Each structure stands twice: as structure tokens, then as C-alpha cells.
Amino acid sequence: MKYLDEYRDAELAQGLLEQIRRERKRPWVLMEVCGGQTHSIVKFGIDNLLPKEIELVHGPGCPVCVTPLELIDKAHAIASRPEVIFCSFGDMLRVPGSECDLLTVKSRGADVRVVYSPLECLKIARKHPDRQVVFFAIGFETTAPANAMLVWRAKQDGLENVSVLVSHVLVPPALEAILDSPWNRVQGFLGPGHVCAIMGYQEYEEICARFHVPIVITGFEPVDLLEGVLMAVRQLEEGRAEVENQYVRAVTRAGNIAARKIVSSVFRVCARKWRGVGPIPHSGYRLREEFEAFDAERRFEVGTIVTQESPVCISGEVLRGVKKPHDCLAFGIECTPAHPLGATMVSSEGACAAYFQYGRYQKVGVGE
Amino acid sequence: MCLGIPGHVVSLESAGGLRMGKVSFGGVVREACLEYVPEAVPGDYVIVHAGFAISCVDEKEAARTYQLLEEMGQLAELDETAAEPELGQGDRPSDKPR
After folding, report:
1. What is the pTM of this model?
2. Distance, in angstroms, between A157 CA and closest chain B CA?
3. Which of A86, A286, A341, B72 lies 20 to 30 A from A357 at CA?
4. Contacting residues for A5 by C-beta, under 8 A, at least 6 apart
């Protein structure tokens, strides 16, 4: 397939690896920010191909993983109401709340539907004017334009039976939280390609300048990831800290203007709690006042939900790049994708789930 | 979650006041919203996420990146066979600013 297979070319990958080996002089710790990149790195074994002096740690970039438990419980409470058709991306269906997952809620009789595009909710709402259609609007900046368009159109079309349960998170504040931590080990970032396709990378330039850390906006295929590593290593070896764009075929500095315009008309920035990490200021979106009528949390009184995370789970440290999945005593034993204990095991893009899926049960010497 | 798949625009249409289109992913055709890529026309490659095209693939940049990478691979081979003299910084195509 065009723009996919070319970037999986083995010879190109070998050439890049060779170049990385040649240019690297000192050990470096890099973090790939996006869960899609983590999945690709573990799937293709890229971390094990790199020289052992280059360590890749996995970032917090999986919105499914970081959706707080209480919001998942809230989704279950809303989905269980008889008048509700609860729509969600497929990724959220198996994520356990305090008691069960959305699939179980469905099996108990709730009308839970998987949608590919949020716009499908408009069709469902028109078809069922007597029902309430609620969409679980989760995601990073990449998904925000799609979710914003649903709300925008629902208002334009006067569809009063549509609402959204918003759990939107933003990447730059999470990077700042990682860099601000006294336990931080990350020396350079592979930035999130598709987030930047929407938002551009001006915000990342401020982070570079403030923390003197290189950020290379990187794609998702093996060749993209290896070139991203090479560009980051080259900056570190030369003592530079800049934003560079590896993913030039999809990302521009200004991002997608049309998409950003709708996002900023529908959402405003707010504090958000990240599962496994805790609250981060200015790290998410909520609906603007003009669109609050479409807020499912306002439309359906759910009350206060108290939740308790597993005491053995170390997902917070995994999400901040301080620990690896194998460092957890529960990994692969008590905690598996079928029975996840915490954030990084609940979605296939979580670091723990990726390690489990691709047979990384034990710690092995990297680069061997 | 932020998965974006490249596909080429097959046709354009308007539905419910939105710019929509059919996009082919290696032969599998799906509907996508093209509101955010107003410049896209049939034949263009777009990256689709959650039913929305989020970016038009810059074919020139894609071709250039690929070519640079390929040349670098060849240079690496050259380096191996003729170890000396080393290419200086900036001589390798990949060193050029982009």
C-alpha cells in the first residue's frame, strides 16, 4: 500500500540502524510519546535492534489508558439507562471500570454500539428521535476534530437527543509534567506525528526551549521511527535541543488550520485527571459554554463515584517512563489484557499490553 | 488510538452539509469526512483517523524523504566497502536541513 509499505522497507531500516550506530557516542534515553508508536516499536522489535546504549521508554500517549476510572464508571452508569444508546470507539469496550467493562454492560441489556466515526451518532440520533444518543468522546488532539464536528453538527442540525461524555487529553502538558518530575530520565522525545498533524508543533518549540530537550516529530512506521531516533541522537550528540520534523509528509508547523478552528470553537482547555498519573493542569478539553447543553455529564445526573486502583499496579511509573512493564510483579501473572489491573494494560497501545502481546515476558538485554 | 491510515481519495460528495468522500485503503473503500482537507481532490492521498481525513499526504515531501533515506542506505554501504575517507558532516544527504 502506498505510503505504508515503503516505510517498512528492511534495507532502509538497516541503513538507518547503521547510521545510528555510527553517530551515537554516548548512552541516551528517548521516549516515544504516542501509544501507536509504542505498539509499532514493540511489534517490529525496534527497541531490541537499536544499540543497547539507546534506551526507548514508553510515553503516556494512549488516551484509552489514561481515561480515569471514575469516568469509565460514569459511562457505564449512563449506558445502563433504558433511554440511552451509548456509542463508543471500539477501543473502550473492553476497558474495565470498577465493576465490569462496557461489553458486560451491553450483555446485561444496555444498548451499546461501536462506531468508527463520531458522525455515525448523528444518523443514529435521527433514526431514534425518542432515544438519547451519548458518545464517549475520548482522545488526544488527533481525535478532537472528529469529536468536535459531532457536537458542532448536532447543534447546527438541532439534534437535541445527542450528547457527549468528554474525556479529552492534551500531549504538551503531559510532556511538561514528565520533564518537571525529579525522577525524569528522558533526554529526548519522539513527538506524536498525528497529534501534530492537527496541532502543528509550535507548542513543542516552547518545551524545547524551556527544558533544553530535543523533540523530533515522528511517524509510525519502522523507517519513520528509526529516522526519528537518528535525528534525536544526532541532536543530543551535537548538544542541540530543537523541534525537528521527521514526519514531513503529514505534518506542518502550523498543523491543520481548519481542524484547529472547529476544535477551539467547541472545546476549551481545562484540568484533567490522567489514570495512573493523576491530575495535570491545563491538560484536557471540556465543552465551551455555548455547547454545554450537549454535555452528557450535565444531562444525566450520575452523582459522585469513588474508585480504588490496584495497589500493586505501577502503571503511573510506566507512563512517566520511570519503569518498564517487566518491573511490575503482577505483569503477565495477575495482570493480563484479559484481566488488566491498570492503565497501561487496558488498551493494545498501552506499554504493558504491547509487551504482553508480543511475548516480552522477561527482561532481555537490549541490542543483543 | 491515534492510528491514521493513508488512503487515496476516490470520489467527493456532499452529505448533511459536510464535505465527504470515498477513500480507498489498498482497495478497501470507506467513507470519510473531508471537511479538514479542503484541498484534497480525487487521486490525492490523505491520512484518515476516526472517519476524518486529518492531513493531505505531501507527495513531494514523501518522495523526497524516501529518496534521502534510500541514498543514505547506499552511502552506508559505500562507507562499509571503502571505509576511508569518511564523509564529512553535511555531505550526507540526510544532514541537509529539511
Report:
1. 0.89
2. 9
3. A86
4. none
